[in-house]
């Protein structure tokens, strides 16, 4: 669509009128927003939603929750009225470039996205939190890129201060260029306040160096804290709407990986399995893969983050694939290991079944009051025992010594929190009690590099990992990626159908 609606001359309006008569489906609303909206993308969003599946009210609820937590902080700090005012600054991501004029795919800073749903780069959310009659009150301000016809011609539309409120429900929207002026005015209005800003790891270098760090350096604040831990404390437990989105993303990931398994054949290039996964996720509605997938044939599976994906997978080899997608801001993360020939060898099946037993046992531990760390300890013990049965670890080991040796066999954790990010809410401890509404991955592995001569020869050069995404509920673990087969017989049956 090449017509501008900003032109105010009669001629332009006349042209627009003609255009709309020719293409009546294209209403003027098409040109209002810098991201999908219910008016322009009814196939993605329902009325009242800011991002697919998440309503304006839910975003407001999240900001409200954060304001309450931050306000409660000063009540606990006993400084009384002096520190009742808080200024929270949460910047959005900038566009980053691969080379001159070639941008990387833009991905919004997750914390800003969680609190606003706003998808444009170089934006900032500011919350003014105060207290009236002993109750927390707050106002949200969203700073957005200024309308700029020339830039929009190249980069696409911006919502601007006029339309950002309609999109997000945040009434106070200002141009990002006015952030500095706004901060000065805040200082005039608030003599004493606490500042909440991630100064140690700024997500937007330019905004930080240009405006925010200058503001911090004035040292007009009483204290400065990082708000991100608080935001992640809210993010870690998913709402009903979020659970629906996680289920959608995990379903797509599981179905897509099943298609990849079916597509594989002896001699296949790892890169082709990557491409197949990307395609199968996107045609099911995902915007992109959640991370560069690991597609590792044979011994390469022993490099945990192998992403070169440029070798051929030979007939006798297993292929380990760790991949997931991002769908409407929520991700999946699945791993399967399968024999590219379609049939496990005896030795492959022995190792595979050992990992599968451990994985199922660990999934059973995904209940309230357990924790990722405690499941990890359990995993080490079970991997140790399985490896002893296989003759991979000496039989005389037990207890902590056995777990230490198991750590060499599986050098990574049992899993991580999952949500908007793959390693979601990474500031949250793995020792937290699991609660209904949390989502975790369970991904034990046994890695047996070909150059480790202490391993029985028949097992050398194998790496097996099985990973599912698991929702914690009040009635136990719910595996969200179960559509992708993991029983060895089911895998062989699937591959036989190729
Ligand atoms: Mn994972």
UniProtKB/TrEMBL annotation:
Example of a GO MF term: metalloaminopeptidase activity
InterPro entries tied to this protein: Aminopep_P_N (IPR007865), Creatin/AminoP/Spt16_N (IPR029149), Creatinase/aminopeptidase-like (IPR036005), Pept_M24 (IPR000994), X-Pro_dipept-like (IPR052433)
GO cellular component: mitochondrion
Entries under Gene3D superfamilies matching the protein: Creatinase/methionine aminopeptidase superfamily (3.90.230.10), Creatinase/prolidase N-terminal domain (3.40.350.10)
The organism's place on the tree of life at top rank: Eukaryota
Segments forming domain Aminopeptidase P N-terminal: 54-204
GO biological process: proteolysis
Regions annotated as coiled coil: none
Cofactor: Mn(2+)
Keywords: Aminopeptidase, Hydrolase, Manganese, Metal-binding, Protease
Similarity section: Belongs to the peptidase M24B family.
Protein's name in the database: Probable Xaa-Pro aminopeptidase 3
């Amino acid at each position: 669509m090449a017509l501008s609606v900003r032109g105010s001359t009669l001629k332009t309006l006349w042209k627009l009128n003609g255009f709309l008569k020719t293409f009546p489906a294209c209403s003027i609303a098409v040109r209002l927003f810098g991201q999908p909206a219910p008016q322009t993308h009814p196939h993605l969003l329902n009325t009242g939603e800011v991002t697919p599946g998440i309503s304006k009210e839910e975003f407001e609820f999240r900001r409200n929750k954060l304001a309450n937590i931050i306000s409660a902080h000063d009540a606990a700090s006993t400084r009384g009225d002096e520190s009742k005012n808080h200024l929270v600054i949460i910047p959005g991501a900038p566009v980053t470039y691969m080379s001159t004029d070639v941008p990387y795919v833009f991905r919004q800073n997750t914390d800003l996205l969680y609190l606003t749903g706003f998808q444009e780069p170089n934006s900032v959310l500011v919350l003014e939190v105060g207290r009236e009659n002993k109750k927390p009150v707050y106002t949200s301000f969203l700073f957005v890129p200024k309308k700029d016809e020339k830039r929009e011609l190249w980069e696409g539309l911006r919502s601007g201060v006029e339309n950002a409120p309609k999109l997000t429900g945040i009434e106070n929207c200002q141009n990002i260029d006015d952030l500095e002026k706004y901060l000065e005015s805040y200082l005039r209005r608030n003599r004493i306040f606490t500042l909440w800003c991630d100064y140690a790891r700024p997500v937007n270098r330019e905004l930080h160096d240009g405006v925010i760090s200058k503001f911090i350096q004035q040292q007009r604040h009483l204290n400065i804290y990082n708000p991100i831990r608080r935001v992640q404390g809210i993010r870690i437990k998913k709402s009903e709407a979020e659970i629906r989105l996680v289920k959608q993303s995990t379903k797509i990931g599981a179905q897509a990986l099943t298609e990849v398994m079916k597509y594989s054949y002896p001699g296949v290039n790892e890169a082709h399995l990557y491409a197949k996964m990307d395609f199968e996720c996107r045609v099911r509605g995902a915007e992109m893969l959640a991370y560069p997938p690991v597609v590792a044939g044979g011994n390469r599976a022993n490099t945990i983050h192998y992403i070169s994906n440029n070798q051929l997978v030979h007939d006798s080899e297993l292929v380990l694939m760790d991949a997931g997608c991002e769908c409407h801001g929520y991700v999946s993360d699945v791993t399967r290991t399968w024999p590219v020939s379609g049939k496990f060898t005896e030795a492959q099946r022995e190792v595979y079944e050992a990992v599968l037993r451990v994985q199922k046992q660990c999934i059973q531990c995904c209940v309230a009051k357990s924790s990722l760390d405690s499941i990890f300890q359990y995993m080490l013990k079970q991997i140790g025992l399985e490896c002893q049965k296989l003759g991979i670890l000496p039989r005389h080991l037990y207890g902590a010594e056995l777990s230490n040796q198991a750590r060499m066999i599986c050098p990574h954790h049992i899993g991580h929190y999952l949500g908007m990010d793959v390693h979601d809410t990474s500031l949250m401890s793995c020792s937290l009690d699991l609660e209904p509404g949390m989502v975790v991955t369970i991904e034990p592995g046994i890695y047996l590099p070909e150059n480790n001569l202490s391993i029985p020869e028949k097992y050398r050069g194998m790496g097996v990992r099985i990973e599912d995404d698991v929702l914690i509920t009040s009635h136990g673990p719910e595996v969200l990626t179960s559509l992708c087969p993991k029983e060895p017989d089911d895998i062989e049956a699937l591959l036989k159908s190729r």
